[in-house]
Amino acid sequence: MMIARIFNQKYKLLVLSSIILLGGLIYSNTFYGYFHFDDNHSILDNFAITNILNLPAIWNFWPSRFITYLSIALNYHLSQLNVLSYHIFNLIVHLGSGILVWWLMLLTFSTSAMQGQKITQHAKLLAFFAGLIFIAHPIQTQGVTYIIQRAVSLATLFYLLSLSLYVKSRLLQQQGGSLIVFRRFYHGALIAAVCAMFTKEMAITLPLMILLYEFCFLKTKEKLNWKQFTPFLLTLLIIPLTMFLTKSVDFIGMKMTRGTSPNISPGQYLLTQFRVMVTYIRLIFIPINQNLDYDYPLASNLLALPILASLTFLASILTISMRIFSKYRLIAFGIFWFFLTLIPESSVIPIKDVIFEHRLYLPMVGFSFFLVSLIDYLFGNKTLKSMVVMLLIITTCYAVLTYRRNLIWKDEFTLWNDVVHKSPKKARPYNSRGNAHEDQSGPQKALFDYNKAIEIDPNYAEAYNNRGGVYYQQGNFTQAAADFNKAIAIKPNFEKAYYNRGVGYYEQNNFTQAIVEYNRAIEINPNFEKAYYNRGGVYYQQGNFTQAISDYTKAIEINPNFEKVYYNRGIVYYFLKEYDQAWKDVHRAEELGSVVNIKFLEALKKASGRDK
Known about the structure:
This protein has 612 residues and is mostly helical. It is built from 29 helices and two strands. The protein has helices spanning 2-26, 39-44, 55-61, 66-79, 83-109, 123-136, 141-144, 150-174, 179-197, 206-218, 226-234, 238-245, 266-285, 305-324, 329-342, 363-380, 384-408, 412-422, 427-440, 443-456, 461-473, 477-490, 495-507, 511-524, 529-541, 545-558, 563-575, 579-591, 598-608; strands spanning 249-250, 255-256.
């Protein structure tokens, strides 16, 4: 008994250390990768996360992802915009999910449905490799390295934790374990389920997954205990109720206020997803040519050969899975998991981007189950050594591909340059690479990319706005104004274009029109702190110090770390002879890293009596 306990402890230590070591190695080159893509809106420009104690602001930003943004607020509280803490958090979540994949598979081998099957002879080995494959697979990079996609990895962590705790509670119940211990696991599972629902919407399949698991592994002769299952079934209501009460979804039009596209019908989206799911299957089996921003055509005709062939292929997989279920239960379950977890984002709700690799993060659990089980059935009956060698080769290949894929995420240019080469007929990659060129290579290369984006999509408002910004920096105000006007004509509620147009009017000393533009930008986005800051500057130039202070104060309320605002407000207070307040603001600006004019500082010290 003692020897068995020691062996189990060593096995657990081996599993945990291997998962942590492997994950740490293959993601070691990501710790200083910068923010990308939606990170701009969700983190860099999101002032709801700047105060972790302001829970209403975090909630209002995205209610159904409250826990995701609470975790982002925690990172901001700890390190501001230092990316290291964000990446470490994401990696810890990923490692935790990998450990839960191992545990869930180990629990599955303990269920009554698996007892007596040959595959259970290798239970600990297969569970170990299931965790490693989940950690090492390169398709997971987008859910780990892309910071804001912790929404999917964190939701998966809670999803797996809930299911694992539920399974553990049911096994205790079937084995006549302690009622107190059973309740702890059961209630822990329920709490984790609620957390998953407030992390990302794709967690809505969790109650259905519990039901599927019950059918596959737990429910033998007895009927399903609806009293135990009902609380989990009720969690299905959390996401739709949250969306309904916060008015973030149109249930009649089947559209959410975030992420959905008015240009894609539910029917088009569903037909397109048949091909997308085939692409997903290709990516998990052959993870090469990965791409952040696929150029994927919309489908509109079910009878079109690519769509019909994809649907037939998917239907065949599901049919085969049902037929082999009794004999190859784990393989079938892995396939069922894959399809069930894809439903929220691959069905009829038209999401703006029809394909994204991070949507495979949770389905990869099913693939991990499927792959190790398949290899056991193919090689395990021959020699254990050949099976282990095959699993090691696969894990090693995945790990190498993951490390190499993570190099692409080093910075904005490497990422979007890769996308441009893989999606050369899509406008967004050129626009995004243009942004990277502005920061790294200068305006000429940026102009080339913006021009290319506009050539591909003549109605791309963001590209016009960005090109206008480059023209403005070059002193070509006429062309800049034309581009800002074009951006606004295409997108009338484009606050950044109004803001940029306001900057142009300010430079031409047309203060009245500048204020009109800033007013419009603020009307569209009441939390546009730069618009308040610039409008405050115009009021200061006009001698309207009261209004200038009001705008500067509002900008500080939105972004408490906006150092330039403190400095400018300090100057206004100085002219109003409110020297103590001026000193506080200038001192705060210095703390935040703002460069302070020495002569002004000496004059302020003298006026406030601080030079003695």
